[in-house]
Structures are given as structure tokens and as C-alpha cells.
Model the fold of this input.
Amino acid sequence: MQAALRHKGFTLVELVTTIMLIAILSVVVLPRLITSSSYSAFTLRDEFVSELRKAQLMAMNNGDRCYRIAVDTTGYQLQGFKSMTCTGTAELTETKQKFEGRASLALNSDNSTSFNVNFDRLGIASLGCSGACIKVIADEPLIISIESQGYIHGR
Done:
């Protein structure tokens, strides 16, 4: 008599059970590893980079106006001015975006939490820095870079 051939491998029940255990562990463990402040920091960085790029594009498309992102201790806001100097009363004022989850912004140079970022018609920021200009303050610090050529990105 020939011995019965045994197939080596996992059964469907074993695979499903393993996948379910991994899923349950990931739901329980991952939130403990990534705090809400860290999540808020990444969200704030991405939203602020988008807002900076928006103001930059508006300044480049409307060469006779000045666009600014005004940042204070509670949030940030896009403002548009009729003049090239960003003085006087803002003609365009978008809704202020409030900081959430203990995350906030500061200048990398002097840790100032209240500052303005103006853009000229070439899309160059007024901060006068190249590279790491703004930091997101949270449990996990993040950097927003504005390059001398105008490229804005998060690190």
C-alpha cells in the first residue's frame, strides 16, 4: 500500500484566524503608538503647506495684489490686499483655521508663534529663509520648508 500524500500548508481557518488576530492587534496597538498630537501635527503640516501654496499661486496669478498667511497663537488665516505691500485692510479674508490637538506653528529662526508670510508676484515668501523655515510644534516636531526658489514642502 502506498502511504497517503500529506499536503503541507495552512488551512483556510488558520489563515482567517491569523488575519483576524493581526487586525484586532492593529486596532488596539496602533492608536497607542500614534498619539492624537502626532496625528494633529501631520494634519496641521499638510494643511498649512496647502494653504501656503494656495496663497503663493494667488499671488503669482494676481500680480497687482499681495497675499498673506497670518499666523497667531490660535490659528492661521489667508488674507488678500489690493496693494502690493500687504498694508491696510485686507480685501479678502478667509475663515481662520484654528489649531487642534495641541499642535501649533512657530518660526524656526526665533520660535515666534505670531508671524506673517507674504508672497510677491513671483511666489517668493517674505520670511527670508531657505529650507527649514516653520516648525510644527507637537509631540513629534515636523518642519515646513520654503526654498529660495519658492518651492514649499513638509519634512
In short: The chain has a mean pLDDT of 87. The longest strand covers residues 75-81. The domain at 36-154 is CATH 3.55.40.10 (minor pseudopilin epsh fold). The chain has one domain: 36-154.
